[in-house]
Amino acid sequence: MSIHVLGIFGSLRQESSNRGLVLLAQKLAPAEVSFTFYDKIGSLPFYNEDLEDPSRTPASVIDWRNVVASADALFIAAPEYNFGPSAVLKNAIDWATRPMGQHVLSGKVISLISSSGGTGGAHMIEQLGGILGLLGNTVISEPNGQIAKGAERISPAGSTTDPAIQALVTDRMSALIATVHSTRH
């Protein structure tokens, strides 16, 4: 049975090494995986409860919710900004969990990985992993997804000069797939 993985990078920069991590995961995904790369979270308006009324919900939000709802798993690569997740990624998560009773971000298997500065995104992974877990998801925590100064070794096009990074992304995809399979039984 095919597994649908949604790849998201939590940065607006087209030259982001986190974008490269998602594209690398897409390239390394085995044949049983349908991997969709979603690069439009920047088109989502700031979350506003007034826009939850179906007659006022922007098309970008409806598209985003549908894409998340159709995924079995999410592969998220994001930088750490000010010791936490980027605003654009948190905003996308907020839209996926609203309106109340129509939550599409629950029951997913999620891999968080980060290419970010000297800590490799440790604070972002810890905070966002906690949030996503509380929202009813299974968050992959092994192997460690922190990549310090990855911009020096990961291209935005999805290649790397570091075999350890390629092995990490491969291992993360394997853990994601195994966890999806275990939750289906």
Task: Tell me about this structure.
With 185 residues, this protein is an alpha/beta fold. It is 37% helix and 16% strand. The chain has helices at 17-28, 59-70, 87-96, 122-134, 163-184, and strands at 3-9, 33-38, 73-77, 109-115, 138-140, 146-147. The chain starts with a strand and ends with a helix.
Write the layout of secondary structure elements.
Layout: E1 3-9, H1 17-28, E2 33-38, H2 59-70, E3 73-77, H3 87-96, E4 109-115, H4 122-134, E5 138-140, E6 146-147, H5 163-184
Parallel strand pairs: 1-2, 1-3, 3-4, 4-5, 4-6
Main features:
single chain; 185 residues; alpha/beta; globular
Short description:
The protein has helices at 17-28, 59-70, 87-96, 122-134, 163-184; strands spanning 3-9, 33-38, 73-77, 109-115, 138-140, 146-147.
Look at the structure and give the mean pLDDT.
94
CATH superfamily (homologous) name? Flavodoxin domain
N/C terminus separation? 12 Å
Share of residues in helices: 25-40%
